[in-house]
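Checklist before submission:
- one chain only
- standard amino acids only
- sequence pasted in full

Submission:
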Amino acid sequence: MQGIELSFLYFLSAFLAAGNSVKDFPTSMISGGQNVFPHDFPWQASIQFHTGHHFCGGALIDSYWLLTAAHCMEQHQPNQIRVVLGEHTLSEIEGTEQYRNISRIVISPFFNVVRPEYNYYMPYDLALLELTTPANLNSFVKPISLPDPNKSYSGRSCILTGWGNTGVNADGADVLQMAEIKTLENRVCGDTWGYYIYYGNICVYTYGVAPCQGDSGGPLMCLDNNGYVLAGISSWDDTDCKDHPSIYTRVTENLGWINDVIDNDGHN
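Returned file contents:
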């Protein structure tokens, strides 16, 4: 079955209608990042139009499945986009790339739920992309592990990656960028923003470092048991991408839905 399985309205309008100010949603770039050593993060994906224009990131979690942000997908059909795996420098063909079309976009059934009475976005900004043919797993392309459902990954030093803009008025990065960033307790994050941040979000902040335009949907990776796990997916941020914590969707809160979709995909 093709197409987006769940239709929904863009939930920012409801949030703003509730009298909230702000935050450009979506935003995402890495401001203050540095070049990644080639293929250090082989699950990183570039989501592109067929022209080759990169517009969002994603993380490979299975040979057939990519996790990204729902807001990246809400205006697109599977035949309009492609996924590039094994990518490092967008402007170069390096021989490690794998190009895949999309057969399905599956958006979280809880996305677009807004609770204006509590003054927060609900934390379900996730979409699963099913590849038409599986990724060829090798040293350049491999899935990232999903997180331990019993861990919060708050108060850690983690890594974010992407090809987004390198500053508010800058262009998108050609070479994949990375930055080390601290995860915060949601209470501290909420105090900074001035409203409640639901547990289904995970907040990150390090002065001078932030995701912005072009990194939405990209991974937040934390070390756990000698390897990286996917702790979050880039969701939204401040307009200047530096003065407030950045907000990711917490993957542990969505493992049931993710596993249900993958377990029933007919590929196993």
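Reviewer check: Residues 24-263 form a domain with the Thrombin, subunit H fold (CATH 2.40.10.10).
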